[in-house]
Amino acid sequence: MSNTQSNKNPEKKPSEAEVGILQILWEKQPCSVRTVHEDIARFKPVGYTTILKQLQRMLEKGLVVRSPGTGKSYNYSASETAHATQSKLLGRLLKSAFRGDVNELVMHALGDANTSGEDLEAIKAFIDQIENKTGTGTRL
What is the dihedral of CA 29, 32, 35, 37, to 10 degrees? Predict the structure, then answer.
């Protein structure tokens, strides 16, 4: 297997720390280990080698791909889009914690969050879009 490919295993989900790294990659990819380390080190103390090891594990899990960088270094990119990863994580959460009940998930999320009026308006507009697309229900 070449260095630009990974052992992609769709069953392996990212840990919380790996999601933090993925967020940096989605915003700035491709990134060197140094770039990822500098970004994370602004918020919490972490060693360069820790980030390197995490990226290597993420490569093995298929969460990232790497390509040659400058010198002996590599650049890393997320193997999937943010939307695809978020959808998988949400789907797993929905199945495991809410037994597939979307209503429970949404009610729980809205009940535990400090949802602003602006947020609620955006959610209502999104629901309207879904209803118009599927032709279900009419809102007054």
Answer: 120
The arithmetic mean of pLDDT across residues 97-106, rounded, is 92
User: Does 94 share its domain with 120?
Assistant: no
CA trace torsion 120, 25, 63, 52 (10° rounding): -130
Cβ-based neighbour number of residue 66 at 10 Å: 21
Query: Which tokens sit at 64?
Result: 């990232």
Cα torsion at 26, 79, 100, 17 (round to 10°)? -60
pTM: 0.75
Instruction: Tell whether 113 and 88 lie within a shared domain.
Output: no
Identify whether residues 44 and 84 lie together within a single domain.
yes
